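Q: Convert this sequence to structure tokens.
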Amino acid sequence: MTMIVAFGNPVYDEIITPVVSTGGRVLSGCSTNACLALSRLGRTTALVGRVGPDYADRFQSDLLRYGITPFVSLSAQTGGFKLVYDTRGDRTLDVLGVADPIQTVPDIVTRASAVIVGPILQETPLDLIRSIRDRTDAPIFLDPQGLLRRFGADGRIEHFLPDDFAAIAPLCHVIKANEVETKVITGIDPRVDPAAAARRLRETGCAIAIVTIAEAGSHIDDGERSIPVPAYATDARDPTGAGDTYMAGFIHSYLSAPHDLFRAGCTGAATASIWIEYTGPDAPFSLGEVERRTMSLLLQSKL
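A:
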């Protein structure tokens, strides 16, 4: 049995878009959303993170209901954001709570076939990632969003490039970043030159770099190939978690066929396209529908 272990604090977010509102806080988070999607793709997952006493019981119940093994320790509070999207898809993040950094690497990581590091807000420091790398030979898939966030002067989240990112990147096999994160890391706008942005991201030290660019698709670079991947056209009601579930789809396909990066990218795009049609953790998708949308993208590329 293959096991995918994800490191990153869960959050309970309030989400407001021009077409939908959660009406309260719902389970989310980079690593959490990836595990939710992977479990529905038939993968066995475990989530390592910290949660406050206010949501601890609910979180344990939620993860068990979704078939995810929780490795959770208590924090002073539960992480969360109020996310408000405008009509262009841009968003503001107001902090509702911040959980403490993750301090332990459970033994289950030694049996992992893949490891996701997907922080929300500075909870996976360099020492933790080094410890993960020392405990397993499995590929580490990094979503750097939470490494690049800090509190701005107005109390809202802003992006920055931490000094230790240069030490973190070489520990990871794959780095997947969205357009904002890519520009912070590389200085290149991926909407202007996605190939150059992906190449520069890979040159930070990972083996494979993925740049996601919303409706413009994604771009993958492995040092030998520069691979554009189309997006799956759909009606996006809530873009929260699009990148998280892209990573899930990519990993699912990559573990079965590591040399077919275009298919893995298409599987990521297909998975994300279903997730953003809904809001919250209960998006009703199946492996069959992901495969159908993946095949549609593969056929589209041959026309």
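The two ends are 38 Å apart (CA to CA).
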